[in-house]
């Protein structure tokens, strides 16, 4: 075993997690929660972002005089007004807060307006006079790679090129009995959280700035804003919670840079809440992929080679497009045993909006391709879809398709076995009986791993404090933002289980830079896993602190003999309730347990692939029952079975909720969601044309929750936030195939696309 | 940004008609507002006065008048879907109303607004056509009735004059020998604008043969269209349930529609899908009366 895996704590399987309702449920359900879009401050101004008129153009001149002259307008800013660095981006800060010389998509900001009312701000925005010189629109990621293609950025259109190779694919194909070779296309999915990008920037009397804006990582926002404002980060306080949904859309900065500039300039609080239309035009999206995948199999279904080329439509700015591409390439052969692989990818700048992080982070795109090739091979080889996967799934200790040894737990076989045993799969013949001759039903399954955490080379860190308050209750401090996943409830449950108190005795301070502890971004299925380690470490430290307090200076402070039970602790001086401990030791000094945790990573990087490999994975398998109307091409998703390895379940209700939500979002990807952009112009700007499933469309569920503890978490937990939406994406088109015999290789499988596959045009 | 407008509220029908007459082309009528407000937000309302008729009691209610049903212009989609009279005497209209938007839209949106809005995709329109409904128009100078099919003149256009209001609709009750159905094709099960929709009405005679057929379809032409050649083919069907035969007759629909490409679908798909929709709807309607050979 790798030495790193020894550094993490041992699992504590005996812990009991009190099954409580979400700690935020009552306030949210009753409307008491004040989201950022509900906030209001005395003297508050309203911002408008003046967006670009063209998807690609040079800016010759920006004239703000007419806008400034409008009564009620307090400030109009252009690029020249940015005091610090005019750019942001988690990896490469190449997106201007205000564009000065060039615009690269319709969501680009060319000026910012702050006015006494939203209405005046909107009117003023129309008066900002921008002189553009239009440039040819770059809208095809493959053509954008040609040497003579117009350039989105001076450095060219390649955001990232990655090639990972293992073995010899050509040799592999020579040994193959069957080769499946197809091109797949995936949609530009939008996150569409209920709350659009919203917030208020408030300049404080001491010269600092408070930023109230829903986002996924307060501490990184703080640094990015400091760079834009040219200010000490300590003078910027970010409050990210509560968030009305994110799914990755609020991982990168959105409106914060503009609000911060306006607030500092005017000295007044400034608010914005984007309209749905503006959000859909300017907001981050999931990267559409074109995937060419050629896969070689032996007669018995064994994989021998997989040659993959991905073209990622990056849109205008980098954000996390590079890491998304690399995570996709890491998963392009899933976790199957493939001796010869060649995974190549291009992240290509275009003027098609701009894409960034989204739940699944590149994995849904490639899993659609590999799982489809697997099923097609199974069909051609006369195997069933479980058998072909069983022949190929990897186990712990084996070498991955990109060449690293899988040291942590691998549950591919477990989720596959579980989905095979599901009621939906076992009784699929019955489920497939349709009631009308034109309705055809099909069932298919797929499995997915999902690398968790930030990957190699990016310090992946989490801290937590457990404070004993004077009255014997606790405060848990951990920076991670919650944007719907239920993680905060889980954090409290974990701390409560360790401390042996009811969760109601613990107050949580999270999702903000002040009074909390940086625990990294709420992304990459990392929150619950990170928190399990940080909170357990904080608990251990708390036990030490108690021992020191009780024993005085004699305590060694190393391995504490204190253990918690029944609302208190067994100490060297006997059992003490937390009230007693607080009374005796926490009145003057702070009794605080501090926990710090760094994610275990691989010891070396995959050559040429920044961030790879990931070290810890989530696993799920899903089976889908669909009904296709062969007269119209409509597909209904009727029932889904999910087998998910949580490692250890903290809150069963939230696990099921993640599955429900993951399936709905995966269903949207597979059947209806796509931001349509033609020549850089967004055509689906609201919910009548950007089609997400409604409550009428979502299926019934069968939940199979496995608990195969992840050894590197003291509580055994794995992240589940992303993987719950992945296998469903291939499972749906594969179920359409099972129902009708057609292979859907371009998602979403809209009624028209499915119809056209069922009824090809004569001249095709 | 919503522009500033004047807002007039009519408290009764006389007041509404008087205001309609005086304001003429300067005003836009508001019933449930579910179309008007969306257009206001998009800056598509050129009128500068809103005339709110939602409080006019005389425009509410569903009444039976001998062999006819009268539906007031302010009747909501919810009321249509839940009304025992409509369920009994015009189930095709209840079925159409049930597919409109979601609960909030059905609660506010009215049949008068749906008709007066004259969208080619309006879901109650094909149902009104196959019921042989008359649109009742009122003005200070009196009342007139127009057959539903002649009411719409183009997308967003109808014969309703600026001084007129749609006051209601009336249509004959369906009888024991009448069967009808409605089906909408959309991008999801609720909250969806029709990619195409179809309503079917058949009167069955001796031995179950179709003696009267009325088929109307939306979203496949500038206005709702009646598919009269297709109707003829249905009248010729032997009263034996056969999917192939139904499909054979429905095939003619292809020739009777003139759809366009838009974001939701291509014209070609719409032509083919309308055949599918009609096949399905006709088959469902006939299934209760005919038996397989
Ligand atoms: C989210 C959403 C979903 C929708 N889904 C559907 C759907 O699935 N199917 C569908 O068919 N429609 C749908 N609609 C459109 C709309 O809800 C319906 O057309 C509804 O019936 C309109 O009725 P209303 O009373 O709200 O009309 P209003 O908005 O009040 O008026 C609509 C138009 O008719 C005129 N008007 C209204 N009443 C009269 C009258 N008595 N005399 C003369 N003119 C009048 C108005 O001036 C206006 O031009 C949807 C709308 C929204 C916002």
Summarize the structure.
The complex is a heterodimer of chains A (764) and B (293). Chain A is α+β, with helices and mostly antiparallel strands.
Mind telling me which CATH architecture of the largest domain in chain B this is?
A: 2-Layer Sandwich
How many helical stretches of chain B? 12
Roughly how much helix do the residues of chain B carry, as a percent range?
Answer: 25-40%
* Largest beta-sheet characterization of chain B: 5 strands, antiparallel
Uncertain segments of chain B of ≥5 residues (pLDDT<50)? none
Poorly predicted sequence stretches spanning 5 or more consecutive residues of chain A: 1-9
How many strands appear in the DSSP assignment of chain B? 16
**Count of the separate structural domains of chain A:** 3
Q: Distance N terminus to C terminus of chain A?
A: 56 Å
User: Number of helical segments of chain A?
Assistant: 19
- Bound ligands, each once: flavin-adenine dinucleotide
Spatial extent as radius of gyration of chain B: 19 Å
Structure report:
The complex is a heterodimer of chains A (764) and B (293). Chain A is of the alpha+beta class and 764 residues long. Chain A folds into three domains: 36-135 and 197-273, Alpha-Beta Complex (Aldehyde Oxidoreductase, domain 3); 359-453 and 606-762, Aldehyde Oxidoreductase, domain 4, CATH 3.30.365; 461-598, Aldehyde oxidase/xanthine dehydrogenase, molybdopterin binding domain (Aldehyde Oxidoreductase, domain 4), CATH 3.30.365.10. In chain A, 26% of the residues lie in helices and 25% in strands. Chain A has 19 helices and 30 strands. In chain A, strands 3-5-1-12-9-10-11 form a seven-stranded mixed sheet, sandwiched between helices. In chain A, strands 7-16-15-14-8 form a five-stranded mixed sheet, sandwiched between helices. In chain A, α8 (321-330) runs parallel beside α9, α9 crosses α10 and α14 (487-499) runs parallel beside α15 (527-551). Chain A is globular, with a radius of gyration of 27 Å. The N and C termini of chain A lie far apart (56 Å). In chain A, 60% of the residues are buried. The model of chain A is unreliable at 1-9 (pLDDT under 50). By secondary structure, chain B is of the alpha+beta class. Chain B folds into three domains: 6-52, Uridine Diphospho-n-acetylenolpyruvylglucosamine Reductase, domain 2 (2-Layer Sandwich); 57-172, Uridine Diphospho-n-acetylenolpyruvylglucosamine Reductase, domain 3; 178-292, CO dehydrogenase flavoprotein, C-terminal domain (Enolase-like, domain 1, 2-Layer Sandwich). Helix content of chain B is 33%, strand content 27%. Chain B contains twelve helices and 16 strands. Chain B has a five-stranded antiparallel sheet with strand order 4-5-10-6-7. Chain B has a four-stranded antiparallel sheet with strand order 11-12-13-14, with helices on both faces. In chain B, α11 (243-250) packs across α12 (267-287). The mean pLDDT of chain B is 97. Chain A binds chain B through residues 119, 122-123, 436-438, 629-634, 636, 672, 676, 683-684, 687-689, 691, 693-697, 750-752, 755-756, 759, 761, and chain B through 1, 102, 185, 187-193, 195, 243, 263-266, 268-269, 272-273, 275-277, 279-280, 283. Bound molecules: flavin-adenine dinucleotide. Flavin-adenine dinucleotide binds at residues 28-36, 38, 53, 73, 100-101, 105, 108-110, 112-114, 116-117, 122-123, 160, 165-166, 191, 193 of chain B. Flavin-adenine dinucleotide binds next to β2, α2, α6, α7 and β10 of chain B.
